[in-house]
Specification:
247 residues, alpha+beta
Length: 247
């Protein structure tokens, strides 16, 4: 984009120079026509420069709006997956299973307390002298619905696989994967959508440029994602300034 602007500005300056040369050396009869043509060219090039800058500003504003709505959904998916791991010790590999889990599963509310009991083995070993040992007891207090805990009365989890309205082509969905790290067996998951899909209706050169972003205040790489299929992380790849809901 900067190169385009510099080229247009250079052409404007060149045109202005040509106007000056015409004013100095071209016969008076031809000057009015040439001046009109060249000033029209200057105005046109100025318009191109303005639209180049304004077009990128509009793109960045729209991009951030769409990213925020996508991130809000990715956070919902992440929360549901973390609940799935808490209850089942693994992550769901597809949205049907994840939604069914949210609909039906319950968190177990427990209480941990310390206690002391007679250690029969040590008591026998010490000739009948009563010896005690410390233990930890886990009491089950209650069961809480995963759905109520995460979403309350909001049914948005039922469509968590779909991109937000107005983002991406019709019917676009998030990609969801789950598995285990080969070297450790740790459960992992990844939910993602490419920038190509999110920005499908925008100028291709701006989208390609956005896919190469590596700055700390931007979304790095070619997609928005939470979790990873390569490492044990459950964070997203977005900066904090794009978060509109509590993580």
């Amino acid at each position: 984009m900067l190169k385009v602007i510099l080229v247009v500005v250079g052409l404007i300056l060149l045109t202005i120079g040509i106007v000056w040369l015409i004013d100095k050396f071209v016969p008076k009869k031809l000057k009015p026509i040439l001046n009109i043509v060249l000033w029209a060219l200057i105005v046109f090039l100025g318009y191109l420069t303005f639209m180049s800058v304004y077009g990128e500003i509009k793109f960045n504003k729209l991009k951030e709006e769409r990213y925020r709505s996508v991130i809000a959904k990715l956070i919902d998916i992440r929360d549901a997956q973390l609940a799935h791991r808490t209850v089942n010790k693994n992550f769901a590999g597809n949205f049907d299973d994840l939604i069914k889990f949210v609909d039906t599963a319950q968190f177990t509310i427990t209480q941990r307390r310390d206690s002391t009991i007679l250690d029969e083995e040590l008591t026998r070993r010490f000739g009948g002298v009563e010896t005690y040992k410390d233990i930890v007891l886990i009491d089950t207090l209650d069961f809480v619905s995963v759905r109520d805990s995460l979403f309350g009365d909001d049914p948005r989890y039922k469509t968590m696989m779909n991109l937000p309205e107005g983002v991406g082509p019709a019917g676009a969905k998030f990609k969801l994967e789950a598995g285990k790290l080969d070297d450790t067996g740790i459960a992992i998951f990844e939910a993602s959508v490419t920038k190509d899909v999110i920005l499908h209706d925008q100028e291709k050169n701006l989208v390609e440029k956005e896919k190469e972003v590596m700055s700390v205040d931007g979304v790095r790489g070619p997609k928005l994602q939470v979790g990873s299929m390569q490492e044990d992380v459950t964070k997203g790849n977005w900066p904090k300034n794009l978060i509109t809901k509590k993580e």
